[in-house]
Amino acid sequence: MNQEQSAVTESIIGNSDGTSQYLTFMLNDEEYGFDILRVQEIKGWDSATPIPNTPEYIKGVINLRGTIVPIIDLRKRFVLEEIPYGTTTVVIVVRVEAEDRERIMGVVVDAVSDVYNIADAEQKPPPDFGGGVSVEFVKGLSTVDEKLVILLDIDRLLNAEELKAVDAATN
Amino acid sequence: MALDLDQFKQTFFEESAEGLDIMEDGLLNLQPGSPDIDLVNDIFRAAHSMKGAAGNFGFNHVVDFTHALETLLDEMRAGSRNVTEDTVSLLLQSVDCLREMLSVLQEGTDPDESRSVELLQQIHALLENSGDTPATEAVAAEVPAAEVTGWKILFVPNPDLLRTGNDPARLFRVLKDLGTLTVQVSTEQLPSLDQLVPEDCYLSWSLTLLGNVAEEQIREVFEWVEDDCEIEISPLESAAPVQSEVSEQPQRSGTDRRTGGDRRESGGSKEATSIRVGTDKIDSLVNMVGELVITQSMLSQVGRGFDMDRLDALQNGLVQLERNSRELQDAVMRIRMLPINMVFSRFPRLVRDMSQTLGKDIELVVSGEQTELDKTVLEKIGDPLVHLVRNSLDHGIEAPDDRIESGKPPRGTIRLQAAHEGGKIVIQISDDGAGLPVNKILAKARERGLVEPDQTLSKEEVLDLIFQPGFSTADVVTDVSGRGVGMDVVRRNIKALSGMIDVESEEGVGTTFTIRLPLTVAIMDGQLVRVGTETYVLPLVSIVESIQIENQRLNVIASSQQVYTLRNEYIPIVRLHDLFGQKPDSNDLDKQLLVVVEGEGKKAGLVVDELLAQQQVVIKSLETNYMAIEGLSGATILGDGTVAVILDVTGIVHLSSSDLGAPTDLQPTDPQPTDLDHAA
Questions:
Q1: Are residues B531 and B419 in the same domain?
Q2: How far, in Å, CA of B92 to CA of B85, rounded?
Q3: pLDDT digits (tens, 9 = 90+) for A23-56
Q4: How confident is the model over B78-95, as pLDDT tens digits?
Q5: pLDDT tens digit sequence for B595-626
Q6: Which residues of B make CB contacts under 8 Å with A?
Q7: Cα–Cα distances in Å, from A126 out to A22, A122, A130, A158?
Q8: Are residues B511 and B539 located together in one domain of the fold?
Q9: Selected residue of A46, A54, A64, A68 to mutate for chain B interface (largest B Cβ count, 10 A)
Q10: Contact at 8 Å (CB) between B370 and B339?
C-alpha cells in the first residue's frame, strides 16, 4: 500500500522527468499498456448494440451515461483467436485524439493487469513483427519485472481513418 | 464589474447586429428620388442608438463612423439631401463596414481600418461637396437661438454618477464635437484619501462651449445624466475666458478602463451565441413547468402509502406526467425554432448587389419568411441557399436583352418560398430564367464518363446529374461564377441535415430547386421495429404503411429482385435481416411484416419481424465518438438504457441496391444478388 502510494507520487513528480504511467491489460497472455492519462474508466463487459456495415472488430455501441460509445474488440482487431467473454473481460474506456477532435471509445480486453511507471528512456522501439500486430500501433516495448509490456499508441490504434480504411476494404 | 461589462457588450453586439439589419433592410427598400420618410427615420434611429451604445463602450471609431452616417441620414431626414442610388450604395457599404468593425471588436482581432477610413472620407466628401445644404447649416436651420456664440455649463454630478455607468469624460468628448470646449475641474469636494470612496464622483466641472450650438443640443448630451446631477446652462455673455485644457485625469482613467474591457472581450465571449425568445414562449414554458410540479406532487401523494385500490390514480397521474413532459418538450423545442427570415433577409442585398454587377434586372420575391425551423438547421442552410440563389442570378436569369428577345419581360424574377408541409419545411428557389440545358448536361456527363454513351436517361435523371461531384454548373452554362461550392456540396450539406433537394427545370421557362428539411434535428417520432434479435428505429415520417406480406403479391423481376405488388405499384423488397446479418423468425416472407418506406421519392419495402412501440426518440450522433455510417442516421437510447440505431431510409435503399450488386462478407446469407432499379 505504502509502496504503491509512493509509486504514484513518484510518477506524478516523475512525469516531468520523462516517466509515464501505463495501465496494462492482458490479451492472449501478452501484456499491453495504454497511457493511463487516456483511460477514462474501466467497466465490466455488457452487451453492445451491433452496428451494421462496420468492420467485424467493432462490437457495436453502448450507452455510457447518455453518450453513444463504440466498442472495439482488440482480439479481433489484432486477428487473434476468439475466446468467449468471461468474468475478467472488461471494457477500457479511453480518450482518442485525432483530427483535432476527441473521441471516447471502449476497448474489450481479456483482463486488466497493473499500473506501471515506465521511463520514456526505457521504451525500446518495436521490432518488425511481420504479420499479426501491426507495428504502427506500437509505441514501444518495455520490460517490467522481466516481463515484456507492449505499449500501444491509442490515437493510431483507434484512428477513425484507420477504421474507415478497413471499412472500405471490407465493402 | 468586469463580468457585467462583458455581458453588456454581448448585448450591445447583438443589438447592433439587429440595428444593422434594420438599416440594411430600410436602405434596400428606400426608393431613390422619393424616399419614405418613415424608413429614413428608422434607419436614422438604428444608427443613432448604435452610436450611443458604442460610445458607452468606448468603441470610438464606431462612434465616429456612425456619427458621419448619422449626419448624412439627418440631412436625408430633413429633406435637405436627395436620396440617390449612389448615396444608398455608399450607406449600404457603410453598413457592411460597420458589421466588419463590430465583428472585429467582438473577436478582439486587429482591425483593418483602411476600408472604414476610405468610406469615411467618401461620406465626408459627400457631406461637404455635393449636398444641397451643408450639414452644419441644416442643423443651424433647426436651431432657433443660432446667434448665441457660446454657452457656459456648470456640471455638478451626484457622487454615484459613475456607478450608473455614466462617464463625464465621454460627455465632454461629445460636447467637443459641437464646438470649441474648455473644461475646468473643481476638486473642492475631494475628501482626504482615507475617506475617499473610489467609486464615488467628487469632481464637478465648469465648461465653456464656443460655437453655433443650440441649448437643446447640449441638453441632449446630458439627457442620460440629468437625474444624477445638477446642470446649469447659461449663454455666454462675453468672449470665453481661456481656461485649462480638458481635464486629463478622469478622461485617461476612463479610457484605460475601456481598453481593459476590450481585452477581456477578446478572451471571453467569442463563441457565445444566444437566442432571443418571445415572452409568450417563456410564459407557456413557465405554465407547463407549473403543471409538471402539480403532477409530481400528485404522484408523490399517490405513492405515499400506496395500495392497489389507488392504481387508477397512479395510472392517471402517469398519463398526465407523460402529457406534461411531451408538452414541455415541444415547448422547449419551440424555443429553438426561429423564423427562416433570419436567413432570407440576406438575399435582397445579395440580389441587388449581384444583379448590378452582372448588369441584370432582377426582382426578388420572398414569401413564407415567418416559417420557423430549428436554429441548428437554420444556421447550416444559409450557405447552400446562397449558392442556389447565386446560381439563379448568375446562370439562371438571362441578360435583359436576351430576355426581350425570347419574349419575356426584361426584369427577371427569383422567388424564395418557405412553407411547412407535413413534418417538414419546404424551401423553394425558383427563377424564370433560361432553365437547365438538358442536352448540354447530358453531353457533358457523357464526356466526363458519368453516363455510358449508350445509356438513356429520363429528364429527371439528367437534371439530377448536376448534383454529381465534379460536375459544376459553371462548366455547363457559363464560367462566370466558379467560386464557392458546387451543387454536390449543396446536396451533401442538405443531406447532412437529413433533408433532400430536387430540381425541376424547363428550358426557356425557368428552374426550381426544392429543399425539404426536417423541422428539427434533435428529436423525432420513431417506429421501433424488431429485426432478428435487434431493435431498430425507423423515422415515422418516412413510413408510408406497414402490411402483412401476402405471398401471391410477391414477384421476382429479372430472376433476382423481389418486388411486392401494392395497389398497382411495384415496391422493391429489402431484407433487413440480410443487410444486418440477423436471423429472421421465419424463412417464410408471409409470416413477416413489410414496412413500406419512402425516401427521396423512392419507395421500398423493408422486411421486419415485428413492429414494436412508436415513441419519440432523442437522436444521438454516431459521429461524436465514431463516424457516420451509411444507412444509419444516428442512434438513440431506449427506455431500458440500451442503444438502438436509427435507420436512414434513403441510405438503406441505396445500400441494398449497391451492396446487392457485389455481396460482401457482411451479408454472408444474402441468397440472391439483386439489382434494385427504381425507375418508377
A1: no
A2: 10
A3: 999 988 889 999 999 999 999 888 888 888 788 8
A4: 777 777 777 888 888 888
A5: 998 876 678 888 898 899 888 888 887 877 77
A6: 534, 579-581, 620-622, 624-627, 629-632, 635, 637, 641-645, 655, 659, 664-666
A7: 17, 12, 11, 19
A8: no
A9: A68
A10: yes
B629 neighbourhood in chain A, CB within 8 Å: 51-54
**Cβ separation of B625 and A105 shorter than 8 Å?**
yes
Q: What is the CATH number of the domain that holds B465?
A: 3.30.565.10
Residues B620 and B566 in one domain: yes
pLDDT single digits (tens) B292-320: 999 899 899 888 888 888 888 888 888 88
Q: Point out the least confidently predicted range of A160-164, B118-122, B533-537.
A: A160-164
Residues of chain B positioned with their CB less than 8 A from the CB of A62: 643
Of B428, B288, B430, residue with least CA distance to B371: B428
Considering only CA atoms, which of B27, B48, B40 is closest in space to residue B79? B40
Residue B259 has pLDDT above 80, yes or no: no
Compute and round to an integer the Cα radius of gyration of chain B: 34
Shortest CB distance from B645 goes to which of A47, A51, A164? A51
What kind and span of H or E run contains B59? none
- Do residue B466 and residue B598 come from a single domain? no
Q: Which residues from B are below 8 Å from A171, CB to CB?
A: 659, 664, 666
Domain-by-domain residue ranges, chain A?
2-170
Buried/exposed B521-550: b ≥16 CB within 10 Å, e otherwise: bebbebbbbbbbebbbbbbebbbeebeebe
Q: Which of A43, A93, A171 would best serve as a mutation to test chain B binding (most B beta carbons within 10 A)?
A: A171
**Same domain membership, residue B615 and residue B502:** no
Q: What angle do CA B492, B500, B597 make, to 5 degrees?
A: 125
Statement to judge: residues B514 and B534 lie in one domain: no
Edge-to-edge strand ranges of the sheet holding A58-64: A39-44, A90-98, A101-109, A67-73, A58-64
Q: How far apart are CA B30 and CA B72, in angstroms?
A: 15
Assign domain A2-170 to a CATH class.
mainly beta
Q: Is A161 on the interface with B (CB under 8 A)?
A: no
Instruction: Give the residue, B353 or B149, on which the prediction is more confident.
Output: B353
Residues B31 and B74 in one domain: yes
Same-domain check for residues B67 and B83 = yes
Alpha-carbon distance values, B27 to B83, B179, B401 (Å):
10, 31, 28
Q: Helices B2-29 & B37-57, crossing angle to 10 degrees?
A: 160
How big is the A-B interface in CB pairs under 8 Å? 76
